[in-house]
Amino acid sequence: MRLGYYPGCSLHATARDFDESFRAVAGPLGIDLVEIEDWACCGATAAHNTNRLLSIALPARTLALAQEQGFDAVLAPCAACYNRLATARHAMEQDPELKEQIVGILKRPAFTNQVRVISVVELLRDMAATIKEKVVQPLADMKVACYYGCLLVRPHEVTGFDDDEDPRSMEEVVKATGASPVMWEKRLECCGGGFSLSRTASVVRLGRAILEDARKAGAQVMVLACPMCHNNLDFRQKAISKYREEPVGMPILYVTELLGLALGLAPRDLGLHRHYVSPQPVIEQVAAATRSLAGGEQPAALPAPPREEA
Predict the structure, then answer these.
(1) 3-state secondary structure of 173
(2) What is the fold, at CATH topology level, of the domain defined by 135-290?
(3) Cα–Cα dist 25/257, whole Å
(4) Cα 253 from Cα 274, distance rounded (Å)
(5) Could you give the CA distance from residue 123 to residue 152 in angstroms, rounded to a whole number?
(6) Beta bridge partners of 274
(7) d(CA 230, CA 274)
(8) Given this model, what pLDDT does residue 42 score?
(9) Partners of 34 in the beta sheet?
(10) Mean pLDDT of successive 10-residue segments in the chain (310 residues)?
(11) Phi and psi (nearest 5°) for 196?
(12) How many CA atoms within 13 Å lie on the side-chain side of 110?
């Protein structure tokens, strides 16, 4: 399966572990990721707050490049990037005049807006049967909270691959690894997104509510597919713990990292050493489930946080 790969800005910087883990699992799953040449920022949360035309033109340029480079589909792992690319495609599909305006801005008359935009969760859900066959370390007895956040399945008319009020795609991926997804209330709640610096107290408050609800549901680990959400729930967990009698201690993994562990890939190859909240308990639980097959070897410990510099 050949896909145009759009890592976006985050996966080349603060979310390198997302990029590393996705590239690592792509091979065993038969996914040929080909990075789109000359891609640029999608505009994320800033562009559509200032200039709608710019917010469409920025991601449309990437879609046009993907078409020129022979791709039928673009895979955008970051939830924000996925949402912006999918929104641009939908807007141009619904408004032919807007599409022609964008074509003029891009100076690409051959652009037809036919390239599909796929999220990593949608892709992995559709490969659940393959994942189940490829698993070498089933994550038995692991309780997982699947966190969608605001952008992954909303709005439905733009995303469309799952129910925007009760999605189940990520749970299907988790079940394919042998783990058990928990049902909890705040899996679609906002984490504060890009307000991490400007309104830190609000982000801490929202993150605390999300983590406490996941813990209350019995989750041992949380998985997601958004760099902003990961930053707010992983990096801010120290601040969140100040308001509790004991630290939260909830490992926050990208769904590709959890999948990589089930596929038997090395934790370091998945970028797990870059986390602020140590995922070592997850690694040890996976190792314990397969220790008899590995001759009783102990899992290698990860370096202590904070994550390495780029």
Answers:
(1) helix
(2) Rossmann fold (3.40.50)
(3) 8
(4) 11
(5) 13
(6) none
(7) 12
(8) 93
(9) 4
(10) 95 95 97 97 78 94 98 96 96 97 96 97 98 95 96 94 95 97 96 82 92 96 96 91 78 98 96 95 87 54 48
(11) -55, -35
(12) 7
Protein fold of 2-120: Glutathione S-transferase Yfyf (Class Pi); Chain A, domain 2 (1.20.1050)
Instruction: Extract the tokens encoding 47.
Output: 């562009």
Token code pair at residue 196? 């991490």
Could you identify the residue written with the tokens 């926050």? 252
**What sign results for the dihedral spanned by CA atoms 8, 130, 286, 213?**
positive
Grouping H, G, I as helix, E, B as strand and the rest as coil, residue 146 is strand
- Buried b or exposed e, range 212-226, using 16+ CB within 10 angstroms: bbbbebebbbbbbbb
**Residue extents of the structural domains in the chain:** 2-120, 135-290
CA-based R_g, the chain, Å? 19
Query: pTM of this prediction?
Result: 0.91
**Does residue 160 contact residue 123 with C-beta atoms inside 8 Å?**
no
The H or E element spanning position 32 is: strand 32-35
* 32-35 vs 73-76, strand pairing mode: unpaired
Rounded CA-CA distance 213/218 in Å is 9
> At which residue do the structure tokens 């949608």 appear?
122
Q: Are 119 and 225 in contact (CB under 8 A)?
A: yes
Distance CA 22, CA 31 (A): 10
Q: Which two tokens stand for residue 304?
A: 């202590």
The answer for 60, left when phi > 0, alpha when psi is -120 to 50, beta otherwise, is alpha
Interatomic CA distance for residues 232 and 204, integer angstroms = 8
**272, 118, 273, 258: which is closest to 181 by C-alpha?**
258
Write down the pLDDT at residue 310: 35
pLDDT value, residue 302: 54
CA atoms within 13 A on the CB side of 281: 13
Nearest-angstrom CA–CA distance, 88 and 76: 13
